[in-house]
Each structure stands twice: as C-alpha cells, then as structure tokens.
Amino acid sequence: MTRRRAFACLPGVLALALAACGGGGGSPGGGGGGGSSTPTPTPAPPPSGRLYADPAQRALSAGDVQRVVAQAVGEAQARGLSATVAVVDRVGNVLAVFSMNGAPDRTRVSRRTLGGSASATTQVGLQGVEVPTTAAAIAKAITGAYLSSGGNAFSTRTASQIVLEHFPPAPSTAGLESGPLFGVQFSQLPCSDLSTRAMQGMIGPQRSPLGLAADAGGFPLYKDGVVVGGIAVEGDGIYGFDPNILDRDDDVEEIAARAGTQGFVAPRAIQADRIPVDGTTLRYSDSESATLGPLQTNFGAINGPAGTLVPVPGYFDGALRGGTAYGSEASGIRPSSAGEFANRDAYVLTNGAGAGRYPIRAGTDAASNAAPLTAAEVRAILEEAFAVMSRARAQIRRPLDSRMQASISLVDTHGAVLGIVRSPDGPIFGTDVSLQKARTAAFFSNPVAGQQLSAGPPIIARYVPRVRSFLGDPTALTGTFAFADRSGGNLSRPYFPDGEVGSISGPLSVERPEQFSPFATGLQTDLVAPAIGAQVGFIFSGGAGPDVPRGCTELPPAPGGQKRLANGMQIFPGSVPIYRGNQLVGGIGVSGDGIDQDDMVSFLGLHNGGQRAGGIGNARVEIRADRIVVAVNGRNVRLRFVNCPFAPFLDDPKQNVCEGL
C-alpha cells in the first residue's frame, strides 16, 4: 500500500499566485469579506459517554428564505444580471426557485475543446447539452449545502477545484494527481435509489437534477455556526467549471450568491480557504463581501417587479417555504434509537415516521452467493468501522484534531443495501457517495462484472475489451482480482499513471486525455447520462410524462431485479470488497472526509469486523488489485488498493495502521 503523494507549494509560478499554496486567508477573493461571516461558536462538549456532539437543530424559516432570495436578486439587478436563484435546506429540500425577468430558461453545459483547437469541439458525455436553468441553480445550491458541515464550508468553486484532472487545477500543474474528490460530481443523481424525492415529503437526502456542480455561484448557508442549507445563482448561460486556480474570476453569479448569504455566512474559520489538502489550500470564493452593494432584504419589493417564484417538476411546487432542521425525524436523518446501533453517536436515515430506511439485515443475494452475509456480520462490520472513524483525526474539518465524520454503507453482491450509518455531522454528500463506493467495489470485484458491462449498450460494452487490453489480461473483470475504489479509480483517470501527462488514458476513462471534463469522465458518465438526459427532458416538459425511474445505470439487473449500481458508479477512494475466504460477499464504502481516512475506515473496519464476527474480512493479499502491474511506455506501474494515513488516530500514536493486514 502506498501513500498518496503530498505536494508542497510549487516554486515560482504557483507560489506567486497562491497565497498559502492556494488562496490564503487575507488575499482578495479568499473568502474573507471582513466581518460579514459569523464567528465560529465554541463547540458544545459531547454528552457523557459519547465522542461526538449533536449539531444544534437549526433551520431556515420562510422569512430567512425570503431574505436570502431578495439579497441575491438585489445584487444581481445592480450588476445587470437576469438570473435564477435557488435555495435549499441541509437535506436538499428546495425552498425557493426565483426566476428574474429576462433570465434564460436554458443553460449550456460547458463544452471543452479537444487538442486545444477551437475547431475541434466534440460532444463528449454531457458537454454542450442544454439544461434547464432552474435545474442548474438547484444543483449548485445542493452542492453548497451537501459538501459542508459544522467543521467545513465548501462552495461550488471548491468543488471545481477538487474534481479536475490535476490538483490544484492550472495550466502549470500538469503532471500532478487528479483532485481528491475526482468523480464526486456524478453523485446525488436524479435516478439514485437512495436519494429521496419531493413527493416523499421533506425527508432527505433529496436528489439533485444534475448531480453536484462545479460552476461558481453556489454557497452553503449557516445559522449559529450550523449549516442549514445552500444558495445558488445561475444566469450567465454557462454551467461550467474553473480550470485555472492561478487567477481570480470576476464572476457575477458568485457575487450575487455571496450577497444572498449575508446574515447566513459560514464561520470564517471553517471556510474552504482555511483547509489545506496535500499542501494546497482550497478555494472558497473569488469575490469579497466588501464589494457588495447595499443589500435588498425586502422580498415583497422584488417578488413581482423583479421576477417570480417558478415551479420545477420533481423538485419545487412554486410555493416558498422554510426548511427542516437536520437531525430531526422530519429531516430524514436522526440519532439512532435503541437496538439500531451499539455506537451511541450513530445517526441513521429514517422515513420521517420513526422507521429506519436501511435497518441492518442479512444479504439478499443467495441466488448467486452460496454464503450471504448474516445480519450479525453486517452489524459487526458497520459498528467496527464506526469505531475506527470515531478514533480518527479528520483531514477536512476545523478546528484541528477534530474527529473524522462520515457516512458508512454496506451492500451485498447484488448491490442491495444491508445497512447505512452516519456520524452526527458528516457532510450529507457522503451518504449517497458511500453507497456508490460500496457498490462499485463489489461490482468490479464480482465474477459477473465483465458480463454485465458487455450486456449493456455498445457505449458501455466497449469498456470491457479496453480494460482487458490495457491490463493484458483476457480474464479481467471476471472476479480474479479484488478492486477497491482506489483501484478502479486508477483505471478511470484521463492520465495514467494518475496525473502524469502522456498519451495514455485509463481504460475506464475517456479515450483520450484531452476529451476529459468534469462532465465527461468515461464509463462513470456513460452509465448515467441517459438518466440525466431523461430528467432534463422531464423538467423542460413541465412534468409531462413520467419522471426518471429509480435505479441508475444502463446495466441489466441482478437476480431478483436489484440494480448492482443503482445510484451510479464512484471513482475516488474509500471502499473495499468483502470476502468470505475466496468468495466475494459484499462491499463497504465510506465518504465524508479525506480519501485516505475513508480508505482506512473501510479497510480497518472490515478487518476488525471480521475479527469480531469470524469468517469474513478483506480480500487475500494475493488477489488485491495492487498485485496488478501495467506496462506503460517501457516501465511497470502497479495499481493501488488502499492508502491509509500516517498517525491517523487521536488516541494512539501508531503509524502504518493498515500495514500487514
């Protein structure tokens, strides 16, 4: 197992442009804005016998939503932008969608030129597709809410920085590895079987019409230091991303959205530009609150004269409302009750009426697995993984030495959910992503992976011969090797080895590196693009016809009808397959913090759960994907399986905690 390379500030070019290696505290656009952000409250101590404190239950009122919309619309008017403004609560309920007079009803997904030639544009993935402006605004608002927590505040500009092919993204950083959350944009999908829908009431996590967004102009909203939702502004006609962190953009969507956050600004100490990853400080905003004009706080003054609330099929009925308080039964995520989990800090997904949506259960895959996981084994793995997480030092949370917070999912070989558990303040995005990761590890380790892909449409089936040729293994994707998400992620990068500029792409990525964009990642995109397209058509039609069905991906179902990748595929680390001896029996996925932390919790949690239950555990060393060596331009490159962080625990100085397991 190798450790992800840690990149210090690059001398010269980057050092001149990135204060503190990425957008430092006092630099213009660094997210400061003088006294506009709320101070970080003193964290409440955990209750006796617990390791985590519960987030205070706060919610946006209808009056709060009116003020947020009015502020954003007022700033947009002052700057000559006709835009759509969306506001959501922490679990993704859409609370308002306001369309200004003259706002475009269509927005184009950024098209990236191939080979650097403007005449060589090509439709790849979702690039160039026209989407409803309302859908783009909702996706951006959900991104601000879902990526944030009481320990970190991330914007859509932050999201852009961490999903691109080089990190940090810039013309001068070619050769560096891809962003730490490469691929996260294809999560929270409209076809996800985990994400809820507006007709289910206000339980979450709700789906996003376009997944997560990389287009600047989306921010989280906070009350009393607690994340309560997100706001976004969309109006320039382009749903894009920022490929160059070396400059500062004068982005009017971002400035208008920044105005909307006033009074609900993230505490300064947890904004993204106070959080370093691999030696690079993240970016929160290219705008400053000090540049804002006088705030318009009167919703009545803009509702009618400046525009109107508009319904969005499947998301918003046109009536502005307040949000739900995260942690309450009504929000769909609450503390576990007696008997659900032994861990006193555990949170679970609920149906809003008291019943857990994903209670612990045994494997459902007896039709293709002679020894399915038992409920006791599932419980042991999830509870032991939670225990590892609760001891781990967080990477992306402030203050320093906070405990890691994340979501943990476990599935069988058919992709059926056998249990999901969360820490109290894990970012919401990790719930759907942890399930994607668990399913992806189980799928690519499954003997039927190649068969399932080959049975899909030609655009999907073509990946099987690509993988087999690339690996020089005609038996690839038939269960001969165990693939973690880090392994499959290696094969999904546009540059192989990850980040190194050359003529070769991973076989699960786009065919040529210059075709990559965050809207076209390869197999991950091709599996779900038809479903996203159907959702776009549903919204454009005003809700005529059926909504996109649950169960993403263009693959045949497993026996019994379960889609193995029912909420899409994920390609950044944090999962491992589960084995009983030589038999694949499931997968575990973790998401919500640093990728090495996610890897460690899945790997060690499974190991410890196997020790507790007996008979199950990680794949044998000799079949792990890091035994695969690929010949690349005259040298050998080994895939990865998991990377665990150094000295990861708050209560133990032990190093190399995954070594030898």
TrEMBL record:
**What UniProt keywords apply to this chain's record, in alphabetical order?**
Signal
Q: Which domain of life is it from?
A: Bacteria
Positions the record marks as coiled coil are: none
The residue ranges flagged as biased composition, category Gly residues, are 27-36
**Xref: Pfam families:** HbpS-like
Region named Disordered = 27-49
What residue stretch is flagged as signal peptide? 1-19
**In which organism is this protein found?**
Qipengyuania mesophila
Q: What is this protein called?
A: Heme-binding protein
Report whether Nucleotidyltransferase shows up as a keyword of the record: no
The reply on keyword Transcription regulation is no
